[in-house]
Design brief:
The protein is α/β, with parallel strands linked by helices. The protein has one domain (11-324): TIM Barrel, CATH 3.20.20.70. The protein has helices spanning 47-61, 79-87, 104-114, 128-135, 140-152, 173-183, 202-205, 209-216, 286-289, 295-308, 321-324; strands spanning 11-15, 65-69, 94-99, 118-122, 158-164, 186-191, 220-225, 234-240, 245-251, 264-267, 272-274, 283-284. The structure holds S-adenosylmethionine (SAM).
């Protein structure tokens, strides 16, 4: 599938629920209603609807990768069933998930057994109080246990995502890189995007990828860039001053957008189709999935999405990440 700018789209980011137990101050507005957090909302795509859509994308359009996100994907009671069904699709797609990791201590081995290939884990701070302040949940130790459980289950390589916010966790970049060197996970430092609750106050809290690198420089002997491909991160293998090695990705979504390499489309849990993370939806796949699967209708929706996918993302986000899936 190619968009109007010639980019090949082979990666679906699928938000499977808008429900999430965390209240990350940059992601989920406190004003989001309780109904937006119901554990199974009627408008959520069902497992069979998701499988119909992904099968169509894999067989007709060469889809290579699906990332399950949210909201919090582990809030879906039928997540394991969904992963099992998606992993049976041929041609096979690589199945990954982004999670807050709170449930991973119990779920990691079942997720791997169901067919999940890899995992990204959000971790904004290694300090218990800062973690609580940023996420609204006193969950740091559970997340750390979740990372260990994911490693033990073989959900490797693990990428750990940190949104860097001036005045909150920007003093923790070195402890986070040190953590990556100790545990073997890849740390990915993400620039704050002007979406969600901090959008209005974005500039005062924004820390650029270049500033992040500058703050880490005193601890790093060598930065060795890795090939970027369609990855959002500028990845580096670094040798620390004490000789240890670590992997670090800097995601410069605002200061140096990677839109030219974008290979993604996004579907929200209510079926809204987003050709771009920061733009408005181009339609709803529900029109092609209910009351029964209609391949021609889905083709028309995809064709339209490809024709309106912008060359670069708009300056401010249309929606909030917890709805689209970051
Ligand atoms: N609940 C899961 C989690 O915690 O990873 C998945 C959904 S969460 C919306 C996905 C990612 O979006 C997280 O890594 C989060 O940090 C990121 N995110 C949310 N709002 C953001 C913003 N305004 N700027 C940059 N990244 C953001």
């Amino acid at each position: 599938m190619q968009d109007q700018h010639g980019r090949v789209i082979a990666y679906l980011r699928l938000s499977v629920t808008s429900s999430c137990p965390m209240r990350c101050r940059y992601c989920r507005p406190a004003t989001w209603s309780a109904s937006a957090n119901s554990s199974h909302c009627q408008d959520e795509l069902s497992v069979s609807e998701i499988v119909d859509m992904v099968t169509h994308l894999a067989t007709r359009h060469g889809l290579k990768k699906v990332r399950l996100t949210g909201g919090e994907p582990t809030d879906r009671a039928d997540l394991l069933e969904m992963i099992q069904a998606l992993s049976a699709i041929r041609p096979a797609v690589s199945l990954t998930m982004t999670t807050n990791a709170l449930r991973l201590p119990q779920m990691a081995s079942d997720l791997a057994a169901a067919g999940l290939n890899r995992i990204n884990i959000s971790l904004d701070s290694l300090d218990r109080q800062t973690f609580l302040k940023m996420t609204g949940v006193d969950g740091l130790s559970r997340v750390l246990q979740g990372i260990t459980a994911a490693k033990e289950a073989g959900l490797m390589p693990i990428k750990v995502n940190t949104v860097v916010i001036g005045g909150l966790n920007d003093g923790e970049l070195w402890p986070l890189l040190d953590f990556a060197a100790e545990t073997g996970v890849e740390i990915r430092l993400i620039e704050l995007m002007p979406m969600g609750p901090l959008a209005g106050d974005w500039a005062s809290q924004f820390v650029s990828a270049a500033q992040m690198r500058e703050r880490l420089d005193p601890h790093v002997a060598h930065w060795r860039p890795l090939t970027m491909g369609s990855d959002a991160a500028r990845r580096n293998r670094v040798t620390l001053n004490d000789g240890r090695e670590a992997l670090i990705g800097l995601i410069a979504a605002m200061s140096c957008p990677f839109c030219g390499q974008c290979d993604r489309i996004r579907v929200a849990s209510d079926g809204k189709l987003f050709p771009c993370l920061m733009d408005s939806p181009s339609g709803s796949v529900l029109d092609a999935l209910r009351p029964q699967f209609d391949a021609d209708r889905l083709e028309a929706l995809l064709e339209n999405a490809m024709s309106v996918k912008p060359q670069e993302h708009p300056a401010t986000g249309y929606s909030v990440m917890t709805q689209i899936g970051g």
